[in-house]
Known about the structure:
Radius of gyration: 28 Å
Number of helices: 2
Distance between the termini: 89 Å
Oligomer: single chain
Helix content: 10-25%
Structural class: mainly beta
Amino acid sequence: MSTNLNVINRTKGEKKEGMIPAVMYGHNANSTPIFVNKIEFIKAYRDAGESSIISLSGDHKENILIHDVQMDAVSWEPTHADFYIVKKGQKVNIEIPLEFVNEAPATKLGANIVKVLQELSVEMDPSKAPAFIEVDLSKLVDLTSNITVSDLDLPKEAILYHIKPEDIVVSIVAQSDEDLSASVDEVNMENIVDSVEKGKKEEESEE
């Protein structure tokens, strides 16, 4: 299901209640300041993320990707957004989220799962990009198991961007048997005192 977002023009420095400022730009396209309803944007961002196309309506009719979002440091609500205009058939760099499914048999051997990647960077037509890529944890059968990028079911059109097929997506690490819980109180203080006294006597004898 496609995601739609209504936008209106804005002038530099202009503010509107309930709206957040945004800018849209793209290849051979001038930077254009716009407003978008905050509530509608939050919903669209949640549904589409930064890897799915959003259709703009209102003052501008374009297909865009959410390229960057600035958040308030306290409320963590969006305060500004960048939209990248995508033309039909154009390939762009996008981040496709990874979704980890099933259980890893290796965890029954006392191992921990280490998720190295949470998303995959690829170059492709975003209109053909999936909402997420599954990572099947059931492939982690023992303590030497791992899942690499080449093990994933990628879209045929996807070209890896700044990542290699042999890069690890998720791996298994055995739990340590070392006991790090010993407290300082358990240290033998008598031995320490004896060592200090011995050192003092040696210094006095040298003098």
